[in-house]
Amino acid sequence: MQQEKRGRQAHRLYRILPWICCFLLLAVSLPAPGRGEGEGSLPVMQVAFIPPLDPCQALDRFQPLLTVWGDQAGLRLRFRWMEDRHRLLAALEQRRIDLALVDGVTYLFGRRFSRLSQLGVVQARGSSRHALVLITREEAAIFRLTDLQQKRYGISDPLEVGHLWVESLLEQQGIDPARFFGQLLPTAGGTSSILDVLVGRIDATVVNRQTFLKASQEKTYRGKIRVIATSPPVSNCVLVARAEMDREVKSRLAQTLQNMGTTLQGAAALAAAGMDGFVHQPDEFFTTEQTLLPYFLRRVRSLGAITLPGY
């Protein structure tokens, strides 16, 4: 009787043993929540992106790049979505993210307060710069910036470079940006913002010039959108790391990033993300961003996103 009981217990254990083994294998293969650099056999780093894409689109676009880059650097890079720049800045300050793809003004801000180090500027279509355009509907009686007084203006982020550029243009003409527009309406950025202009949800917005030119070739937009202002060249996105990150880790990340395009797998991942590669640029490269930095600082201070020692 006792032997039969032990047999039934052994049989039950035998049936659940494979599930226990699977669970243990899964547990050891996944990174522990919150594990940061230097912990475990494969350090985990959090990487944030704020492109004009929804989280699923961004994951599809950038995950292959993170996978290849992480494999080459001996790290596990986790994708993190950030809704806007002031949340990203707060996450960097609180060390909840380690790396981020940001615009040039955000990078200069981080450099000024010793928070961010540059790993490289995105190279796309053979250039590290692009232009922005302020657009409206072709049929609208809007031909210059001042015609937008009390109109509906679309922004995807109060800290976006395009919005700061428009603010600077208004102030150069002695106009208070806070009182100029009738409404500031949220937009998703990119082609979605162009569509918002086309259907009349907003009267104007700023988009990447390349995005506008590409959309203009489509029947939906061709001849229906007008450019009323074009910005000076601005930097492509900058890949940055927290300044206090271990120097050896940053060096390894930068080196593998620079060599990304030398392998077929790396080149394919870059192409999927719409990039040629990354090039390190001196601070003098960010000419337009230097002129917009005071507007960025003022906006960050008003949002109260992070502390600003010495400011």
- Binned strand content: 15-25%
Low-confidence stretches: 1-40
Number of DSSP strands? 13
Radius of gyration: 24 Å
For this structure, the CATH topology of the largest domain is: D-Maltodextrin-Binding Protein, domain 2
Largest sheet: 6 strands, mixed
- Which outline best applies? globular
The CATH architecture term of the largest domain is: 3-Layer(aba) Sandwich
Description:
This protein is α/β, with parallel strands linked by helices. It folds into two domains: 44-128 and 235-303, 3-Layer(aba) Sandwich (D-Maltodextrin-Binding Protein, domain 2); 132-231, Periplasmic binding protein-like II (D-Maltodextrin-Binding Protein, domain 2), CATH 3.40.190.10. The chain has eleven helices and 13 strands. A six-stranded mixed β-sheet has the order 2-1-3-12-4-13, sandwiched between helices. Strands 8-7-9-6-10 form a five-stranded mixed β-sheet, sandwiched between helices. The longest helix is centred in the first third of the chain and has 28 residues, at 2-29. It is globular.
